[in-house]
Amino acid sequence: MSEKNESGERPATSRARFLDAAWGRCRGRPPVWLLRQAGRYMPRYQELRGRHSFEEMCTRPDLAFEVSLQPWREFGMDAVIVFYDILFILKAMGAPLEYTDRGPVFHRPVREPADVRALRLPEPGAGSQPVAETLRMLRRELGDRTALLGFAGAPFTLASYLVEGEFRRSGDRIRRMMHSDPETLEELLEMLADATIDHLERQVAAGADAVQLFDTWAGLLGAEDYARFALRGQTRIFEALRPLGVPTILYVNGSSHLLELMARSGARVLSVDWRVSLPEARRRVGPGVALQGNLDPAALFSPPRAVREMTRALLESVAGDPAYICNLGHGILPETPVESVRAFVETAMGFPER
Amino acid sequence: MSEKNESGERPATSRARFLDAAWGRCRGRPPVWLLRQAGRYMPRYQELRGRHSFEEMCTRPDLAFEVSLQPWREFGMDAVIVFYDILFILKAMGAPLEYTDRGPVFHRPVREPADVRALRLPEPGAGSQPVAETLRMLRRELGDRTALLGFAGAPFTLASYLVEGEFRRSGDRIRRMMHSDPETLEELLEMLADATIDHLERQVAAGADAVQLFDTWAGLLGAEDYARFALRGQTRIFEALRPLGVPTILYVNGSSHLLELMARSGARVLSVDWRVSLPEARRRVGPGVALQGNLDPAALFSPPRAVREMTRALLESVAGDPAYICNLGHGILPETPVESVRAFVETAMGFPER
Fold first, then answer.
1. B144 belongs to the catalytic site
2. Hey, is the C-beta of B296 within 8 angstroms of any chain A C-beta?
3. What values do phi and psi take at B213, rounded to 5?
4. What's the pLDDT score for residue B260?
5. Does B317 touch chain A if contact means CB atoms closer than 8 Å?
6. How far apart, in whole angstroms, are the C-alpha atoms of residue A214 and residue A208?
7. Is the pLDDT of residue A276 over 80?
8. A301 touches chain B (CB under 8 A)
9. Fold entry, domain B14-349
10. Which of A137, A179, A334, B288 lies 20 to 30 angstroms, CA to CA, from B12?
11. Would you say A325 and A32 are in contact if contact means Cβ atoms under 8 Å apart?
């Protein structure tokens, strides 16, 4: 997994291409995949979903295996990310999670010290068993051809769901807790970091080539609060994973004010949203980390010709950067036209090798 | 309203202090008020609200007058903002608005060309009659002592509510429309800008010393989309208001990547959220505009002593800036402790004159 590419040759497989870019030494066109690439926008997913609940789709390895592979079979991107959800680990910790039409809901929000104490570290592997099994099946199927990715929610983002109960746009409740009871929040964040480390270690052991940590909501924080309540947990997790030798990816939505701090997390790759330009991000984080992103997922609602143009412009803006992974700036949206996804992936995969 | 303060004296009234700071020539301590300062966190508001709907509270001038004054009577801040809502103008344009427990909902979202054409410019003054009457009453009550503010939603933010139907966190629908049908969206934005200009002109005529334009959701856009779909409307509005000679304030939430563009809008004051530091904002926008902000409203859930410390730190960070208005970085939250609001306002009003 940390094999060197000292020869300066173009990568022979998608997997090698992805790992080269993540380690900052990709000699050819950048690898491409899409955040949340498996799911609702695909007709074949909808078919399966008509017969199974979302939870079943995630936690039955036979179904999750199928769903994970659907976009890869259709578009052939360079990486497959396992189909799962960041919140199951919380269920394994004792939080009552329900998926509703409005999104995930925790009916007993975690806000008081007693609520935190009612949670427990999952039994070893309890929150990871299905995703680990799916990853093993995917690894066998993909072999060395394609990169395989695992993922988890970061402590601040997991805590946001728990504290808000039903996450809406502003994260007011967790920001309140940061100020009214920071010690209790820190206790919760510690526990979540412990659980996340175990969760990601098991995914790597099951065959993931790299793991992405989603701290989606940490962009709601100013720099000082980010350093205390988000970065600290990220750093602990990346440090714990370092001995495994796999690249780590950090995603934060709305992170344009936090790039310098993200670069200090120890993540090997920073996944950025569409509100910061890649050349500016590169200028601000320096050459030491790889970048991933950042087409606005809403841009896939343009006609395919426009998608191709925007994708080319994105790739041109970082042409020659050996540490770049082409992607969206956030998860793909429901109802995204399949032809736009094809236009995005084909344009990226057809970009001239350099 | 554009009276000069060439003498270099400290302002004699809160109104003069506010206007001095907005025009960039405040010689004493900065003026202070709070975004959304009237409302749910105040027990006397809750009392009234128990007997009247939110819509009644906004549109009955006798009630809106009372509610607007409640925080000023309690804390004595330097400005009173009229109690109203940015969405009533849309009702006057024919959009069916309902206030629910989950927030405002438009049951027929505006997404197709026909939906836009079904809207109409309000009859002259139709969306502004109640707020104008409340402003006249407030002006009589406050006289020259205290600054009086009007406000409106900016076209992009108004359109976000219309297009999303029920606004959730991500503004996916309006961002989709930007890409799938930009012409229809631009037609909608044009109409909203026209309505907003009339709306704000009437508020100034009714006695507002300054007006704030809320483009709350424009921070969801990258620079290029912001320039086309948000800044253009803002600019047109501020240009139209310029002959009135009152300071204009522009608020965008999550705007740290957009400050330079905001500074080109023609707004006299930029109101920024807590995710950018004021010294950085000043460095980036230059000396030509005033700044307003930016304590995290969630910080008011800290103990009063901590609120006083954070407020002092905020004021110290821009001490001596003649173009600064002390405020929060977003609207005050429900359940905010009254004692924290008092600590914030008292600390700001007790800050040493320079």
1. no
2. yes
3. -105, 120
4. 98
5. no
6. 16
7. yes
8. yes
9. TIM Barrel (3.20.20)
10. B288
11. yes
The mean pLDDT value of chain A amounts to 95
Mean pLDDT of all residues in B180-199: 97
Q: Which helix (H) or strand (E) holds B221?
A: none
Residue B3 has pLDDT above 50, yes or no: no
Angle (CA) B73 B78 B81, round 5° = 75
Look at A275 and B296 and tell me if their CB atoms are within 8 Å.
no
Report the gap between the CA of B129 and the closest CA in chain A (Å). 32
What does DSSP say about strands A97-100 and A79-81: parallel, antiparallel, or unpaired?
Answer: unpaired
Considering only CB atoms, A298 lies closest to which of B178, B257, B277, namely B178
d(CA B14, CA B344): 17
What does the mean pLDDT of chain B come to?
Answer: 95
Q: Which of B176, B177, B298 sits opposite A175 (nearest CB)?
A: B298
Q: Which two tokens stand for residue B218?
A: 């424009």
CB contact under 8 A, A301 and B276: no
Lowest mean pLDDT among A38-42, B258-262, B311-315: A38-42
The pLDDT score that the predictor gives to residue B184 is: 97
DSSP-assigned letter for residue B169: S
Task: Write down the catalytic residue from B41, B84, B161, B226.
Answer: B161
B261-275 average pLDDT score: 98
Q: What is the pLDDT of residue A10?
A: 81
Percent of chain A scoring above 90 in pLDDT: 90
Residue among B169, B176, B254 minimizing CB distance to A301: B176
- Are the beta carbons of A162 and A109 closer than 8 angstroms? yes
* B73 is a catalytic site residue: no
pLDDT digits (tens, 9 = 90+) for B7-48: 567 888 999 999 999 999 999 999 999 999 999 999 999 999
For A131-153, the pLDDT digits (tens) are: 999 999 999 999 999 999 999 99
Lowest mean pLDDT among A217-221, A286-290, B6-10: B6-10
Instruction: Give ∠ CA B193-A273-A159 in degrees, rounded to 5.
Output: 105
Using CA atoms, how far apart are residues A141 and A38, in angstroms rounded to an integer?
17
Q: Where are the strands (E) in A35-94, listed by range?
A: 79-81
B111 touches chain A (CB under 8 A): no
Sort strands A103-106 and A97-100 into parallel, antiparallel or unpaired.
Answer: antiparallel
Q: What are phi and psi of B315, to 5 degrees?
A: -65, -40
Provide the terminal-to-terminal Cα distance of chain A, rounded to the nearest Å: 23
**CA–CA distance, A26 with A147 (Å, rounded to integer):** 14
**Chain A residue with the nearest C-alpha to that of B218:** A275
List CB contacts of B22: < 8 A, sequence separation 6 or more. Answer: B210, B247, B249, B268, B269, B290, B323, B325
Question: Domain boundaries in chain B?
Answer: 14-349
Closest to B55 measured CA to CA, from B14, B6, B105, B17? B105
Pairwise CB contact (< 8 Å): B167 & A168: no
In whole angstroms, what is the distance from residue A38 CA to residue A53 CA?
15
**Amino acid letter, residue B313:** A
pLDDT band at A7 (very low <50, low <70, confident <90, very high): low
- Establish whether B40 is a catalytic residue: yes
* Residues found in chain A: 354
Q: Using the structure block, give the residue that is written with the tokens 């309690």.
A: B74
